[in-house]
Specification:
By secondary structure, the chain is mainly alpha-helical. It has one domain (about 10-310): Rhopdopsin 7-helix transmembrane proteins (Up-down Bundle), CATH 1.20.1070. The protein contains ten helices and three strands, in the order βααβαααβααααα. α3 packs antiparallel against α8 (about 235-260), α5 (about 140-165) runs antiparallel to α7 and α8 packs antiparallel against α9. The chain is globular. The N and C termini lie far apart (about 55 Å). The model is unreliable at about 1-10 (pLDDT under 50).
């Protein structure tokens, strides 16, 4: 136990409970998560490499996709290695500083992914609604600025929340009922939950989710109106096809986040939170490169060429 006297947070150690209550599933879960992580690393780094080597893919759309892959790789790598470690060792401790650092990086990449999907929606909007001006509007300078915004905003949100979390006093149980340092589990072991940090977290979450979804919905309404006005059925099908992968990625990511933060406060809440957390921190980073590669002729062609001529 950790003393409640004073702020002893910096010297505290937490125990990440994870899935330790399911003793018979430790090895199967380790193998499943290891496989997912390997696919995630190979898929996302592979996507970045494919985009880099194929000059045909040096377009704004693939430039944004390479950054989404980078964010997914970092996102998964912040959480999964510790999850794997805790499934095979008995010592599941993590220091207070290590825990806050993990939360900080998770926050950065979660926010960055949220707004990287917004940037990609804007790219599709310009490509379909203003195709003749696409190369002019989506200049290298604008693309670099659009990519910088999710990273900068993610770092800003993370710094604010991390600064407040560093000042928490920890008391009572030092067991975190999750497999990574998520905001609600850190708050659950603090001596008191400062109102300001809870309000800040809520404001940031609502702002990020609502603003990103409003922009995405607005752009896609305009995209669909433009597509429906196209005289050619072939043109409509091609335009819908270019949006399908992005819409799939958006639906999975935002669907999981909305489900997770709308979990009712019940006895099974922590299990639901853990399963939801696995989905958006471990599984989604694996799915994104698969979603984009399986539906993309240029990516599949590049992979085929690399396999035929590995040198």
């Amino acid at each position: 136990m950790i003393s409640a006297e004073g702020n002893q947070s910096s010297g505290s150690n937490f125990i990440l409970l994870g899935f330790s209550e399911y003793t018979d599933l430790q090895v199967p879960l380790f193998l499943v998560f290891l496989t997912i992580y390997m696919v995630t690393v190979l898929g996302n780094l592979g996507m970045i490499m494919i985009i880099k080597v194929n000059l045909k893919l040096h377009t704004p759309m693939y430039y944004f996709l390479s950054h989404l892959s980078f964010v997914d790789f970092c996102y998964s790598s912040t959480v999964t290695p510790k999850l794997l470690e805790n499934l095979v060792v008995e010592d599941r401790t993590i220091s207070f500083t290590g825990c806050i650092m993990q939360f900080s990086f998770v926050c950065i990449f979660a926010v960055a992914e949220t707004f990287m999907l917004v940037v990609m929606a804007y790219d599709r909007f310009v490509a379909i609604c203003n195709p003749l001006l696409y190369t002019v509007v989506m200049s290298p300078k604008l693309c670099a600025s659009l990519v910088a915004i999710p990273y900068v905003w993610g770092i800003f949100c993370s710094l604010i929340l991390t600064w407040f979390l560093m000042g928490l006093s920890i008391c009572g149980s030092n067991i975190l009922n999750n497999f990574f340092c998520e905001f609600s589990v850190i708050m659950s072991v603090s001596c008191y939950a400062p109102y300001i940090i809870q309000v800040l977290f809520l404001i940031i979450c609502i702002f990020d989710e609502v603003s990103s979804l409003i922009i995405i919905f607005t752009t896609y309404i305009l995209i669909f109106v433009t597509i429906l006005r196209m005289p050619s059925a072939c043109g409509r099908q091609k335009a819908f096809s270019t949006c399908a992968s992005h819409l799939t990625a958006i639906s999975i990511f935002h669907g999981t986040v909305l489900f997770l933060y709308c979990v009712p406060n019940s006895k099974n809440s922590w299990l639901i939170v853990k399963v939801g957390s696995v989905f958006y921190t471990v599984i989604i980073p694996m799915l994104n490169p698969l979603i984009y590669s399986l539906r993309n002729k240029d990516v599949k062609e590049t992979v085929r060429k690399l396999m035929d001529h590995p040198t």
